[in-house]
Request: fold
Amino acid sequence: MLGNLAAYPPALVLYMRQRVVVDQATGCWRWLGNVKPLDKRGRGGYAGVYIRLSGVYGRLAARLLYEMIHAPVSDGLELDHTCQDRPCVSPLHLEEVTHSENIRRGLFAKYERRHQEAMAGA
Ligand SMILES: [Zn+2]
Reply:
């Protein structure tokens, strides 16, 4: 894992590097750049890249870092946060899955969160 960094402009690599801090407890990479707030329906919450360089403006930081450090995402696949932490941008916490698998995991994660909240409140 140290794939394509050299293929990207040094200014972009620096921009990304300066905005990542590792959470020592979880191993998640915290993004110091823009994170889209959750909307009323719980959508959003992902880290975004807003530098006008190499056509990356408005891209998801996690996906871009995955492509830079690991490899391009295969056709037809999506990246799933295995840590269930949407703002996390660690390529180590991303896994390529199909859309339906991503949905399935998301639904179960939502169920588990609700269950835990209910147990905590009981
Ligand atoms: Zn993570």
